[in-house]
Write a structure and sequence with these properties.
Blueprint (H helix, E strand, L loop, with lengths): L1 H22 L6 H30 L10 H28 L11 H26 L4 H18 L1 H16 L7 E4 L4 E8 L3 E5 L5 E5 L17 E9 L7 H14 L10 E7 L4 E9 L4 H21 L21 H6 L7 H6 L20 H4 L5
Antiparallel strand pairs: 1-2, 2-3, 3-4, 5-7, 6-7
Amino acid sequence: MVCATALVAFIISRVIVRLERKFSQTKNLWDDAFLHALRMPAVGFVWLQGVYWAANIAKRYSDAEIFKVNDTVLKIGIIWLMVWTLWRFVKQAESILASPAKMRRPMDYTTVMAVSKLARAVVVITAALVIMETLGYSISGVLAFGGIGGIAIGFAAKDLLANFFGGLMVYLDRPFKVGDWIRSPDQEIEGTVEHIGWRLTTIRTFDKRPLYVPNAVFTSISVENPSRMTNRRIYETIGIRYLDVAEISAIVHDIREMLENHEEIDSDQTLIVNFAQFNHSSLDIMVYTFTKTVEWVKYHAIKQDVLLQISEIIGSYGAEVAFPTRTLHLADPVRLDREADAKRPRDDSHDDESQERPDYREADSLSDYDEDGKADRTTYGDVDS
């Protein structure tokens, strides 16, 4: 029996392989997917049926309890093989629908992945209910118990359910998909989306660290998707010296003409080049334009070229880019030396008072003064000299 089962399984496998090769030459992709999904479960069915027949033969010669459940095992095995076939077919369909090589207009990978997960969940839940019915359990009772237990589970796992429904909203609204660069102005979330699960979304930050964000977060924050931008913006303020005010009109004209003729600047978008304001130490020119590319590296190369050409235009008029400067106005300096003080005319009204005042400028301590309060000439010499 075992040898016969192995032979039949080998034949079935070879037949399905030949059919796969034949159907691969057609334009229909779904027959290839179905045959590929069916091959392994078909071989499994042959082995399951072989074991069932062998068990029935053995049952005639033995009363072991294990042989009494042959029919139940066969039914559960067939259900499991059907689930396996559908599971494999869903995986094949997922790869077909999201493949640009197989579809003219491939579906969004995030949507395909969401539908695939939902279909597999339906298959598994349905199979579980059918198996329980096969084993003799009442499905209505199970569903009633599930309704009561679901309330308790809902309160206990509210965060888990919030993440689940948050992931469902991401799948339905599709604010981003796998491979998009996203950022949030509300939180420090920025990077490339790697995976969108039912509970967590995996984001790879620009320093190559994985960031795991619960899906419930996306229901309460704003999310930017720079991957879907149509252009990149160049917005700069160029300062010119006040000495070059006579040339500013010509400089503005040449910069605008250069941008309009630049092959990497999208002239269909807003383009502004204007003298903007009198700043503290410069005459400011606003440059506002958009590039055709959205690629990050190429954008910076274009921006560098634009800025260098602006610098050349400014230099061609003998003007210069301004830098912060200040002009300090000082009053006439005041001389504080003694000779200047001595040459000034003295006020006679204070002569008597000045003569009686001790000359403390020439003495270092009180011990150097005589009884009248005047400096001791024997110690310091002639003070008038």
